[in-house]
Amino acid sequence: MIKNERQYKITRAQLERFRGALEELRSRPVPDEDVLRHNLEVTAVESEAQVLAAQVDEYDRLKSGREQVGRLESLDDLPRYLIRSRIAAGLTQKELAGRLEMAEQQVQRYEANDWGSVSLTRLLEVARAIGVSTRTGPTEELPERWPKSRELRHRLSTAGLDAAFIDRRLTPPDGDDEEGKVLDLAARVHRIYGWAPSDVIAGKDLEAALPAAVGFKIPGGASAPRLRAYAVYAHYLAQLALEATRNLEQRVIPTPADSFRAALLDRFGEVSFSSILEFAWDLGIVVLPLSDPGAYHAVVWRDAGRNCIVLKQQTRKSSRWAFDLLHEIDHAAEQPEDPDYIVIDEETAPTDDAEYRANRFAGDVLLDGRAEALTAQCVEKARGRLQLLKSVVPEVAHRGGVSVADLANCLAFRLSMQGENWWGAATNLQEGDQDPWEVTREVLLRRADLRALSPLDRGLMVQALAE
């Protein structure tokens, strides 16, 4: 689309060149053996000339008033509608910039991207500056009375989005204009869930359109819409994290556990949460920390051959995060031939073979290949009585020269596979140390380039990484 006089002159000049080339091609004698190639060349030049002619004609008709912009059919079309409206109103980009109290070059940059990098609040300001209505047309009519932001949040909660999650992660952190806040929230929901802003604002049924997370198993008694809604949100963030780390080198994940531990020690000289985290990044695995409650504590998403691990463990102990991260790294190494892959680990007790292998991998990396032997010693020494394990674990750990916290976690995971919940006691054996969520966030911000994201995506990512 032509957006200013300079582009109009350039496009007209290009159109004249293509028309000249087309005339020359049509008048050129063509040997029989070259007819097919010649016809293809004519078709290609003809097609390009038609596109340029349509752009010139659209600009001429808008500027002369021979073409009416019409009503806005959908809020999704608002950016292009504003550009057409400005031209039809006879406003130059410089004049619009003056009304918005910004530089002409800024308006040029915004329009070059079809206003794709600004909030809907700003788009409303642009509409007012041009003097056009933002009410949509008959195909997607909005209600006469726009909902307040609290009404919109209520509508979204009925579609499966938890009210606290809406306030904490989706609602724009600033903005005093009520209509602008509604539009900004609708734009954010559209970005994550694909719901048209006009449908969100109009209060249409949204639950039926809620995407389901592939491979996600709903735990018994849980709210399926809310869990799916959060899974979709987490997947969206994982995709953003992968987009912000496009230059991250992908390497083969060393397995089995002894190979991984040897490579880790060779690289960092220690086995700790920080070293495991840095090593994961060195292998090309993006690690994204979230701090929202939910019925799963970790996810591995592989998109186009790249792995992203999402950790959202509520326990802020480095030893627990180290175990979870290693567990997910083992999942990330599964089915390497599949470019797209997903494993969502629930907070309920896992029972399948893949979970057992991932637990064994994590335990053996942390305990130098002795996870089974040391946990078996604990059970034997406690004579199978859970209430005695808390006093037994430190003794076995000290004798074996391993971390008490790591051994406690390995034992808790082993017991969970047998349907026993020993996590409370295991957590009490963890020492207080640096917050692993903060450590993971700092590494992400250091390794990723959030400037690669659009302002809307970047804002949502920053909000997701807030406490």
Describe the overall structure:
The chain is mostly helical. It is built from 21 helices and 4 strands. It has helices at residues 5-27, 35-64, 78-88, 93-100, 104-112, 120-130, 149-158, 163-170, 178-193, 197-202, 224-243, 257-268, 273-282, 318-332, 353-366, 371-381, 386-400, 404-416, 423-428, 436-447, 455-464, and strands at 286-289, 296-303, 306-311, 341-346. A 4-stranded mixed sheet has the order 1-3-2-4, sandwiched between helices. Strand 2 and strand 3 (306-311) form a beta hairpin. The longest helix is centred in the N-terminal third of the chain and has 30 residues, at 35-64. Mean pLDDT is 85; it is low at 137-144 and 208-215.
Largest sheet descriptor = 4 strands, mixed
Round the mean pLDDT to the nearest integer and report it.
85
Secondary-structure element order, N to C: HHHHHHHHHHHHHEEEHEHHHHHHH
State which percent range the strand residues make up.
5-15%
Task: Give the overall silhouette.
Answer: elongated
The total strand number stands at 4
Proportion of helical residues: 55-70%
Gap between N and C termini:
43 Å
Unreliable spans are: 137-144, 208-215
| Structural Rg | 29 Å
Arrangement of strands in the largest sheet: 1-3-2-4
Classify the secondary structure makeup into a structural class: mainly alpha
Instruction: Count every helix, treating DSSP H or I runs of 4 or more residues as helices.
Output: 21
